[in-house]
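Example 3.2
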Amino acid sequence: MTPPDGSVAELLGAQPVSCRLWPEQTEGPYHRPRHPERRDITEDRVGLALRIGLRLVDAQTAAPLAGVPVEVWHADHEGRYSGFAPFTPSPGEVVTSKSVPLEIVAPSETFLRGTQHTDDEGICDFETIYPGWYASRTVHIHAAAQLATGRAVTQLYFPDELTDQVFACPPYADRPPRDTTNATDSIFADDGRRTVMQLTGDAIDGLTGVLCVALERHTDPAKSVGPPRALD
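Structure, written as tokens:
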């Protein structure tokens, strides 16, 4: 287990009261069964430097969830996921597991995919680049946590105003304007506001995004007593 970056841990430690309940969202069509265990997932991808830090806590007790494997994966600045061919949907078509080819055409590619285990404080972090857009989706990062009671999947988002600033700069500016924002994304509409990253830095020198999320470890409704008050 790699200790989290000090600045990320400090940012996360300073915001326990802003912890938000983890919303279950679609895994999407571009997940792969194995992610390299590493902090830096950038490889050869170009784009704005982005460090993301996550803190996982138990929704019932607010206790840190230690030793939890956390996967992240996202598109590069051109909107492509490692291993998969680019896909252009028809006008109005949403990119889903049913609408895109699922064949892995480049099995050796692993860029922008990785796994880290949370430390004793429930924290893990990744070094990457700001994600690009692809048709019918707002900018996002996929995240999955493997708990003893099952796998929890969600997506991490960014403020639209910040994305506009990032996309006004190269290499993002070399592409056409995106067609979907948080306000018009069908998946973000399902509690995506809970996982909008809290960001510091800027669109020139790089960004650090952190988020504290609370997960329900018990699937039995009889054991659920509701989230602590600190949850948003």
